[in-house]
Amino acid sequence: MTTSGAERPPASPPEKPRNPLVWLLIAPVTVYRTVISPWLPRTCRYYPSCSTYAIGALRRHGFFKGLTLAVWRILRCNPWSLGGVDMVPEVGRWRPEPYHRPHEEHQAGDGEGRGAVNGPRTT
């Protein structure tokens, strides 16, 4: 079995936060996601959604840094933002690794002539 660099190992189940302050911040976000969010239209400009990002940041980085990352993400989520993929950074970092779209392989015979530098050949 071969694996490509794009594949990720299966995600481990989310662990319960040890810090009670983290739990106190995750609880209202969870209530928002289950009670309020289903009644609102989907308008999130980022992936993952801001609530998912906030929970991930709090679990990964703890109370202070997780709260800072979550608040900064919510401030960036506005109508003038382009949005996009914005994952929670690894421990010890403030910014995530840049996201690169998976390369789509060119299929031969599609008639597009994408492989030619100066366009299709004419003889």
Automatic annotation (TrEMBL):
Membrane topology: Peripheral membrane protein
Record key words, sorted: Cell membrane, Membrane
SMART domains in the record: Haemolytic
Annotated segments matching region Disordered: 96-123
GO cellular component assignments: plasma membrane
One protein family per Pfam: YidD
Cell compartment(s), UniProt: Cell membrane
Biased segments, Basic and acidic residues type: 96-113
Task of the protein: Could be involved in insertion of integral membrane proteins into the membrane.
Family per similarity comment: Belongs to the UPF0161 family.
Protein name: Putative membrane protein insertion efficiency factor
